[in-house]
């Protein structure tokens, strides 16, 4: 009975959390994103004007590109908010979509590698992992000027490891720390998300490129298999009615 009551309370809490996330996503879509879409259409019309000076057209084009990036970022975040807690976010396909989308507007080539046998990843951890890796991929395309951007997803027994690397300009460590303090590149947010799931985030930068490594311990990363005690309890519950039926039949 205690197990059933605890399961019921957990289910109610998860349903309430999902409804709240759905409500927030709906409000963001109906207000912020719709407004951004309208502004983007006006900027697109502005860029097409024939009476603009070259420097004005360049500025308008840059604004259009930034607005389009913000709109895409917002849509991705809303899609994550609307992700059903009972469903599974496919980490491989989602990161592949992000990388392929970013590569359409850049000469940098994108590739994704999977090492090990894919394991089911906890939904809450998967959302944070995706957000961190996505930020790393977009940073590589925005700032690295690389020829190649490579994402590696390694399913290991002790941890889930995500690596995003590029062969671009690299980031000067002092500059990276200064920009991190100023809130640029979303590095602070990446560290905060990693802390939420007890993961370790490491950033290595040199003149040969940048590598971002995320290591998520198995306890936080993977769905835990049923314990032996729980399996025996299930077996006992399945067998118990049969014994009662046999006893009644004998009487």
Provide structural commentary.
There is one protein chain. The chain is of the alpha+beta class and 251 residues long. The chain folds into two domains: 1-87; 89-223, Histidine kinase-like ATPase, C-terminal domain (Heat Shock Protein 90, 2-Layer Sandwich). The protein contains eight helices and five strands. The chain has a five-stranded mixed beta sheet with strand order 1-2-3-5-4. Strand 2 (148-155) and strand 3 form a beta hairpin. The longest helix is centred in the first third of the chain and has 46 residues, at 2-47. The protein is flat and about 75 Å long.
Task: Record the SSE blueprint.
Elements: H1 2-47, H2 54-81, H3 91-103, E1 109-115, H4 123-144, E2 148-155, E3 159-166, H5 173-182, H6 187-196, E4 200-206, E5 209-217, H7 218-221, H8 228-250
Parallel strand pairs: 1-2
Antiparallel strand pairs: 2-3, 3-5, 4-5
Helix pairs in contact: 1-2, 3-4, 4-6
